[in-house]
Amino acid sequence: MHSQSIIERFRWNEEPLGLERDGLLAIYPLVVDTNILLSDVIASLRRRTPSRLLTLAHLGKLRIFAAAHVSNEVRMHLPRMAWEHQLPPLDALQWWMVNYLPIIRFVDVPHLDLGDPRPGHIQDADDVPTAELVAILAPIISLSNDAHLVEPGMARRDWRFLVEQGQTVATKDIIFMGTVVTASMGGDLGLRAVRATIRPVRAVRSTVAIGAGVILLATLALWLRYRILACDETPDKHTSSPRSTRLRTAFESAKATALVAILGLSSILDDATAAADTLESGKVRDAARPETERAIAIRLLSHLLAAAPRSMTATDLVKVLTSSSHVRRTDISATLKLLNGEPAFVRIGASRWQLGAQKAVDPEAINRMRRAIPTPMFAPWQ
């Protein structure tokens, strides 16, 4: 099953070159451990509303990855945790299956010699796959409450703060996408013009480019207002003022509105830029020094697919690999062969690839769970 986020749909036709992780509409890969998902599911179920983590995942700002075994661990521990929080275990399992499984990409982590000593220091065997996934994708945001992952530097414990920063960063994307949709109402030409600015603007971290876009739209609105008034030949029944006075008044009113909007946007976008810097500093550092060609190739493909705006074809990957100064042309063919040989890379449709796989919701699974989990006569949530 492949579930697309809003940003993925918005960027579907974009060329896969230049995959910035810190610009407009960039996708932040995120590795989570079992305990993070358990805590988030319980908190979200108690409120009966999507959590920040879930909302950002559906938006596409955060792309959640987890080791393959995490799905079974959540399913095993969630009923007990729901019972402890006085919630129906079956409701918790259904909430997990319907809202979380379709957006999390579970990766069958290959065992690689990456030259990173940290995964080897993990004492709990259940945490090793998560540590190896972090090592493959580093630098990356990694969230866990498990001391086995936090102490060696493979995860951050302040996950709620980092997710909050992600929400702040997402405001810039929401404003930008809203601007594009608004401009598209002016016709196909306006939509093409704004879409043409997506790639260069994404690479600009300051608010100058967005501010210029807002000013451009405000100028367009003023021009349209002027044209409408200029073409209105009917006499004004409510005022006897000259047309030039009415035009000047309309211009000043629109100018003041545009100025207030620009000042407000500037503050919001400055906060988003600061939050993006916080996310960058919160990433797990890259300590991998792979030596084998297989390890180098798998790590390269994983990085490309983790942050790509859409699932990629072999042609897309060739374009990116060819443009990279770190890849020899003779290695590209051998690298692409790994797509079919490594379970971490999942085929979507006939010719597209992504890292990890979402799990489809099985309607019969809920019925099987109801039979497997007996409801006590005096349940703690009643």
CATH arch. level architecture of the largest domain: 3-Layer(aba) Sandwich
What integer is the average pLDDT? 77
Structural class designation: alpha/beta
**What oligomeric state best describes the polypeptide chains here?**
single chain
Task: Kindly report how far apart the N and C termini lie.
Answer: 36 Å
Backbone CA Rg: 25 Å
Could you give the order of the helices and strands? HEHHEHHEHEHHHHHHHEHHEEH
- Describe the largest sheet: 4 strands, parallel
- In the sheet with the most strands, the strands line up as 3-2-1-4
Name of the CATH first level of the largest domain = Alpha Beta
Query: Residue share in helices?
Result: 55-70%
Tell me the number of strands: 7
CATH fold-level name of the largest domain: Rossmann fold
Describe the fold and architecture.
- The protein is α/β, with parallel strands linked by helices.
- The chain has two domains: 6-164 and 285-364, 5'-nuclease (Rossmann fold, 3-Layer(aba) Sandwich); 170-281, no CATH class.
- 57% of the residues lie in helices and 7% in strands.
- The chain is built from 16 helices and seven strands.
- The strands form two sheets. It has a four-stranded parallel β-sheet with strand order 3-2-1-4. It has a three-stranded antiparallel β-sheet with strand order 5-7-6.
- Helix 4 (70-84) packs antiparallel against helix 5, helix 8 (159-184) packs antiparallel against helix 9 and helix 13 crosses helix 15.
- The longest helix is centred in the C-terminal third of the chain and has 39 residues, at 243-281.
- The protein is globular.
- The two termini are 36 Å apart.
- Mean pLDDT is 77; it is low at 198-208 and 375-382.
